[in-house]
Amino acid sequence: MSAETPFDPVATARSIIRSAGAASFGTLDETGGPFVSLVTFATLPDGRPVLSLSDLAVHSKNLKRDPRASLLFVAPGGEGGNPLAGARLTVTGRLAQSTDTHAAWRYRQMHGDGASSFADFHIYVFEIEASHLVAGFGRIVPVAPADLLTDLGGCDDLRAGEVMVVEHMNDDHSDAIALYAQKLLGLPHSNWRMTGCDPEGIDLASAAGRARLGFPERAATVAEAGGYLKSFAKEARQRP
């Protein structure tokens, strides 16, 4: 019998953010009381959540008065059966409207243009100040923001080339992306596409959900990331 894999709270927390399909979103109403809604989100390459919010929504009006907010992410599988059995992560911090075009691109990659193309919708970036991970009995710990986020230092080449990598893979290598999902991650057949590429791996999404495929080593350049993507495709094609 193989030994149980040691619990890694940082890897678990990062995985929850990258794979959750939506999040419960807490803001403070005009009386200072809690108000909770449901939002879709994407992430920046470092893992910070990106939201697209309408000015007309109650949570947006709350943010204009007080930017403090909280997000609750639940790992896939925790939504059905016993919901308390699923790993979940709560992050607290502040949410501010952003003009970062890459944040907007990341959100569109995950969710398409949709309603966020309307004039009353704006991109917001969540700055994490603290987090609380619940991943099972004896696995309830805080994770420091510095540990929760991916270090992008020394990766300017990959950061500058991310859009090119993602669009090239989606346009010309959709077959390889499908193999990543089905053969390497054991996910169901679906319309899988790549939504992001950062130093630690790639993000995938489809109607079946979201997924993360990590690189074996940190990638600082487009060439290094491309090498991993080619090796992933070769490995996937060799599997039955």
Automatic annotation (TrEMBL):
Signal peptide: none
Domain Pyridoxamine 5'-phosphate oxidase N-terminal positions: 13-132
Occurrences of domain DUF2470 (ranges): 165-225
InterPro entries reported for this sequence: DUF2470, Haem_oxidase_HugZ-like_sf, Pyridox_Oxase_N, Split_barrel_FMN-bd
Pfam entry (one): DUF2470
SUPFAM superfamilies linked to this entry: FMN-binding split barrel
GO cellular component labels: cytoplasm
Protein's name in the database: DUF2470 domain-containing protein
Species of origin: Kaistia hirudinis
